[in-house]
Amino acid sequence: MKVSIDYKDSNIISILDTLTMMPNNLDLIKARDVWDISKQGEGNVVAVLDTGVDTDHQSLARNIIGGCNFSDDDQGDPTIFEDYEGHGTHVAGIIAAYQDNGRGIFGVAPKSKLLILKVMNRNGVGTINSIIQAIDYAMNWVGPNGEKVKIINMSLGGPSPNETLHRAIKAARQKGITIVAAAGNSGDGDPNSFERSYPGFYQEVIQVGSVNQNLEPSFFSNNNVNIDFVAPGENIYSTHLDNKFVKLTGTSMAAPYVAGSVALILNMMDRSKSVMVPYMVYHYLLTHAKKLNYSIHSVGNGFIQLTSEKKLILGTLVTPKKLKVL
């Protein structure tokens, strides 16, 4: 089975050579409220399984800690993980972009690091096997100073389950890695008409749908019984090829808002029991999510929010709109 990127092709709304801004979505999720206490995600590595990255981008280059190519681009050379499509660069920027000499944009966790695992080629297409290999690589990767992957973001999906992929995801989760994926863009606006995309639909994955600036569910965002949270996904400014910035739309853009948020959350919690970390992260998100007056099939437990209030002590009683078993 093949997998593909999940964003709306026609929504490359604008391309800018230079951009200096603080995206409004950072304030929507209240990321800047916790930047001091969370150290902007410093010390945490996010593995981005996507189309690669623009390795020379002015707002990304110094946060790229490593990478590997699992696609068929560049004759399969594992050392070349350059992005020729733009999707992976955009996703990476939402997570960890930074301003360089006052130019560029900020991602959610601008001091986190990115491990770029290229699983899709210049056409935005990859294989299940490439994703499985990348997850295994992420689980076993050790950085130059002993860093390990704490978060995996997958803004991709396919229509069918795969047991080998599911086992790989379970193994990563057991190693204390929090896994985030896009819900998919096959929605028809009907919360009772279910659409599934894998790996997002798996129980061990935080499946993220899209909302607009008014916190209304995006028409295209998949609806199903396993939607966990929603995040901004329409007209999202981020990094792109050739040192540029573009607006893109899709659940692919929503997922990295959650992945970046996890990089912040990890610095606000006790991580002494690594196997429990994904559980504690999920309960932080659950406790602080902004409840929305829409079907749980569309918005799950609500819109992600961050706060420096220490509510996430393990054992805090939370009554979710929907039950998630990690």
Automatic annotation (TrEMBL):
Active-site residues from the entry: D50 (charge relay system), H87 (charge relay system), S252 (charge relay system)
Protein name: Type II signal peptidase
GO BP terms in the entry: proteolysis
Alphabetical keyword list: Hydrolase, Protease, Serine protease
Occurrences of domain Peptidase S8/S53 (ranges): 41-302
Record has ATP-binding as a keyword: no
GO molecular function: serine-type endopeptidase activity
Gene3D superfamilies per record: Peptidase S8/S53 domain
Organism this protein belongs to: Pseudogracilibacillus auburnensis
Family annotation (PANTHER family): CELL WALL-ASSOCIATED PROTEASE, SUBTILISIN-RELATED
Family the entry assigns: Belongs to the peptidase S8 family.
Domain of life: Bacteria
